[in-house]
Amino acid sequence: MIHCGRNLRVTRRSKFTENFAKLSPSQQRLLLDDPRLKVETKQVEKYYQRLSDFNFLLAKIKHPEYGIEALINDYKLLDSLEMIEWSDRDGEAEKALTLIKLALQKSAHLFIDDENQLPGQLLGRLLAPIPPQIPSPQIPPLTSPPTYKYFWEYIPIIGKFLPKYTRHPRKLRPNHLLTASSGELSEMFTKKELPPTKQMPVLEKLLTEAQKYSEQPWLRPLAANLNPADDPLIRTFTGHSDSVTAVAVTPNGKFVVSGSRDETLKVWNLETGQELHSLRGYSNLVNAVAVTPDSKYVVSGSRDETLKVWSLETGQELHSLRGHSNLVNAVAVTPNGKYVVSGSRDETLKVWNLETGQELHSLRGYSNLVNAVAVTPDSKYVVSGSRDEALKVWSLETGQELHSLGGYSDLVNAVAVTPDSKYVVSGSRDETLKVWSLETGQELHSLRGHSDLVNAVAVTPDGKYVVSGSRDETLKVWSLETGEELHSLGGYSNLVNAVAVTPDSKYVVSGSRDETLKVWSLETGQELHSLRGHSDWVRAVTVTPDSKYVVSASSDHTLKVWSLETGQKLHSLRGHSDWVRAVAVTPDGKYVVSGSRDETLKVWSLETGEELHSLRGHSDWVMAVAVTPDGKYVVSGSWDQTLKIWSLETGQELHSLRGHSYSVMAIAVTPDGKYVVSGSWDQTLKIWSLETGEELHSLRRHSYLVTAVAVTPDGRYMVSGSGDQTLKIWSLETGEELHSLRGHSYSVRAVAVTPNSKFVVSGSDDKTVKVWSLETGEELHTLRGHSYSVRAVAVTPNSKFVVSGSDDKTVKVWSLETGENLLTFYGEYPFWCCAVGADARSVVAGDSGGVVHFFRMEGLDGG
């Protein structure tokens, strides 16, 4: 056994790994080539066994001469001619191996940098629920982290002034929140053994071995928490450092070309996701990409007002086409490969000679910027879309305008032409797609289903389907003939900017503001899975004082109660008519109190899920909720600039605390139940008497809005975090500022105090977590590793570990003493809230996709 990092890591190598390390390089290669050899010698059973051996998978991924793609190719042998001829194939085993292959493909981009993500990713995608079997033994209790409230910073501003945007419900993601059941989960806590899947022995064998992984510390999912292996998503490509704005697939079906706000284009291998070239030369973001019919050249358009022509094979820039006087929004290449057509913010389209780069025509007729361009398959016509809400059809030969197609109530973002040149499909900011007759200009269908503007449109080469990408973070597949919505593909954590379809009509490639490209199966595309969790952002999670339950609050207007022991959803609390932003549980664990954007608070029975009271009195969104330690009172803070104190028993409003001049975003009640602390966008903290409602202190030292507030467990101090990049430590008794903690370079998002009242932990938009001395205000550690804003922080009850959740879609666990990043789990959506357990091992986190994640820390010595 190896102990390192001040005895925090406890790791043990498997017998397979130890024996593998003793082999010579040639013997290692022979072993790693074993699946292929088993196919060649028709040892079907041994082939199945090898590819369900977790330690073999790990060894092959880690070996520098092999890696994840070599492993995936082993599973593709299932489709080889040699295996097709076998008579003793096991259909169930091969179904299991196919699921394993799909799971590996979905997470392949993670294994390139961190092979030790393998067990967590496999469990997250392949675990399945089981009916209860036996009564479960007692497990260590869990408690919530120290009292603090999150400020979901800039989102409320958007919602306040752009209500149409924020009130669109997010679409269900293609994912099950698959949960473990009764005896199963406690086994995972105590015996550390994965329960049988009751499905496929091959899959059961793999997951059992994965669960026992001990070579590195890791966060073990207790239930499936990722998109399942068999959903339509095939791969994710990562490499851009900003939003992906444009995507094209080469006509030979081998490569993908993407353009980004990071000012580059990238060429990718479609099958493996490998980045082949990064094309640099622009001085501003890339808006548009097209590929020539012979798959030899890439044409791109940029905000720097130029088009560029590149060699696909070498990545070399061949031409720079100048002529537009504003940014280039759209690019198309004619099917005969002779011409390029571009659309610009300068309200014109231009036709260029591809070979020479010469400008041939400038097409004028719009009164606003041109957003979209398409060329008919016969190379005779150009179709364009504009911000002036019209589509136009032009003669490519003469540059003459032939039709103007009206019918939209907002700007046209995207245009595509069907392969038979009969129809035009357009997408608009008005959330619809429309199908038009190219010959007559008549509108044939209006496709409704997106809940936000349509950014991208493509037609499959077989002419049967339309694929659209939207700001609502989904792709949709439609029947071109009937206009019916066939599939809705979720999986992004940000808007979809671009879509392209492969020449064989089997796959869709999409690009998003979340900086990734994703490849989806059109052939096996299915309706969205029924999500067994929330259908929108999880705003808050809390653990009940008796450690039996977790309560989550979501933008889907509901709260959910979960068994912490089994991961099972017990109740779905419905009654709010808008986002639920805050949740608290009474100290006796009997009641849940929620605050919502519908301006109400509600009190619920935790046992039955019944709504007991609806507390009305606020005139705007309820942003924060707390319950007093004696369980008698509820305190709420609202956008209406007030706090209110309510009787929990009767629901009666007792006090309305006025004094803030802007919305109240964070509140905390002192451990003795005497005082309330509030933080506001008016840049102040206030201390109030709970008994009288009197304002005792107004603390005005922050220079920007207050985002988070915490009270130390000993009740002596307050800690505040602000958009002014600082934290401040205050005397609760006198209101005196004791320390100003400076070090963050962007807004402070979250604050927690360690249970021993010695340290403060903060998370910031500067992508870091910081640990501070409460006594001196000194910065002790800066925890670096997140690549986006840190949304949430929590501290384990033994004050040894910090848990953080980030917009980079990871949960991380850190050593409080050394600042070392010990554990990381990669999810699929930003993590916005987290809580930890009294056993210092259990972590609960909520993400913006609606999933509540249950983890167990493995491989750490936190005694």
Quickly list its features.
globular, mainly beta, 863 residues, Methylamine Dehydrogenase, Chain H, 5-stranded antiparallel sheet, single chain
Enter the CATH topology name of the domain at 233-521.
Methylamine Dehydrogenase, Chain H
Annotated CATH homologous superfamily of the domain at 233-521: YVTN repeat-like/Quinoprotein amine dehydrogenase
Uncertain regions spanning at least 5 consecutive residues: 1-5, 129-198, 526-531
Helix content: 10-25%
The overall pLDDT average reads 86
CATH 2nd-level architecture of the domain at 233-521? 7 Propeller
| DSSP strand content | 35-45%
Number of strands: 63
Short description:
With 863 residues, this protein is mainly β. It is built from 13 helices and 63 strands.
